[in-house]
Amino acid sequence: MLLLLLGIIVLHVAVLVLLFVATIVSQWIVGNGHATDLWQNCSTSSSGNVHHCFSSSANEWLQSVQATMILSVIFSVLSLFLFFCQLFTLTKGGRFYITGIFQILAGLCVMSAAAIYTVRHPEWHLNSDYSYGFAYILAWVAFPLALLSGVVYVILRKRE
Amino acid sequence: MAPGAPSSSPSPILAVLLFSSLVLSPAQAIVVYTDREVHGAVGSRVTLHCSFWSSEWVSDDISFTWRYQPEGGRDAISIFHYAKGQPYIDEVGTFKERIQWVGDPRWKDGSIVIHNLDYSDNGTFTCDVKNPPDIVGKTSQVTLYVFEKVPTRYGVVLGAVIGGVLGVVLLALLLFYLVRYCWLRRQAALQRRLSAMEKGKLHKTGKDTKRGRQTPVLYAMLDHTRSAKTASEKKAKGLGESRKDKK
Predict the structure, then answer these.
(1) What binding partners and quaternary form does the record give (chain B) (predicted)?
(2) Distance (Å) from the C-alpha of residue B161 to the closest C-alpha of chain A?
(3) Which of A16, A82, A137, A150 satisfies CB 3.0 to 4.6 Å to A104 for a cystine?
């Protein structure tokens, strides 16, 4: 029983860490010597460690991606907090509905952020020589994990 | 304060007043305030605000002058002048019939409105105010940017999405809890009424036929709630027993 609880908490914290890293690190698209989005557009010169960082574009679609990533982090943190609340206050046999719903919402937010970004990034990123960075991949990985975590919460029943 | 020396008290105040007038009078100047940047869309109108602070009262000889320096140009041309209560608008230059005076000297406002913007209006506008005898002062400049479509400030969409989604989620939660609370209260009231009716039925031995017609529905519900209660009790007991067995 304790093992199950520990496993669930580890999964939730892993999703939270993935969401934080994907939101904060500005490496959704990398190219030859430059890494952009969500917040900064940094380029390093080929010779050394000279960084030039500018703010990312003020495009409305980029703003919505930023907003939904922030929302997913908020929902995941709220879900963790509510999980601990419900652990001590829920009646025997009850289900962690609120926790699960918030975690599922977080997963949906990440998915919409990543989808919007994938479709709309050519609007402000005109460089044709690029590849997706690790923060972008983490965002996509966080989506099924968050969904799984939320579903587990909804199915789980409180025992003691 | 000694009562026998009344002449000594006014002199420090006088000294302070003299000192302040000597120190503060060179700072007598006129200060003009405008926006730093103004954005406008092509074809629309834009208001260039100009306000000022003067150490003198607003006189009748107050004058406002607006000058325009085109983007990349070197000369500034005068496009508007207001003096002795009469505005004089440019009637021959590029701003012909496009400037409107909306200021009021009594409210220290020297604003003008430019109608029907065009890309050639990009540049720097200077507001100059002279309020005799207060004529020494700094002018202030405002840069006009003309866009095809005025861009929204950064953060509007961000804030709107976050605020909107959080608001909707909060509202949904509140609604859900409200509905659940009302439903639970109704359930409790119904159960109380049913238990009261049951007690009443035991005392009265089947006299009233009207009540008899009504009771089947309520008894059906009572049976349902009773069976549900026993089922949940069995379930809870079962889980508890299984836990005991495990331990």
Answers:
(1) Homodimer and homotetramer.
(2) 6
(3) A150
Q: Report CA torsion sign: A66, A68, A70, A73.
A: negative
Give A65-98 pLDDT, tens digit per residue.
999 999 999 999 999 999 999 988 888 888 889 9
Q: Which residues of chain B lie closer than 8 angstroms to A66, CB-CB? A: 158
DSSP B171-193: HHHHHHHHHHHHHHHHHHHHHHH
Q: Name which of B157, B173, B235 is nearest A60 (Cβ-Cβ).
A: B157
Tokens found for residue B63: 């004058």
Do A136 and A52 meet the contact criterion of CB atoms below 8 Å apart? no
Measured CA to CA, the distance from residue B166 to residue A67 in angstroms comes to 11
CA distance B127 to B130: 10
Mean pLDDT rounded to a whole number for chain A: 90
Torsion region of B206: left, alpha or beta (phi above 0 gives left; psi -120 to 50 gives alpha): left
Could you tell me the strand order of the sheet in which B137-138 lies? B50-53, B30-34, B137-138
Question: Does residue A70 sit at the B interface (CB-CB below 8 Å)?
Answer: yes
Look up residue B3 and give its amino acid: P
Q: Are the beta carbons of A37 and A26 closer than 8 angstroms?
A: yes
ipTM summary value: 0.87
Which pLDDT tens digit goes with each residue over B36-49?
Answer: 888 888 988 899 99
What is the Cα–Cα distance from A90 to A153, expressed in whole angstroms? 13
- Could you tell me the pLDDT band of residue A142, with boundaries at 50, 70 and 90? very high
Residue B131 has, within 13 A of its CA and on its CB side, a CA count of 24
Q: What pTM value is reported for the model?
A: 0.62
**Nearest residue of A to residue B162 by CA position?**
A67
With tokens 């918030």, the residue in question is A102
How far are the Cα atoms of A81, B24, B80 from residue B58, in angstroms, in the given order?
Answer: 62, 20, 20
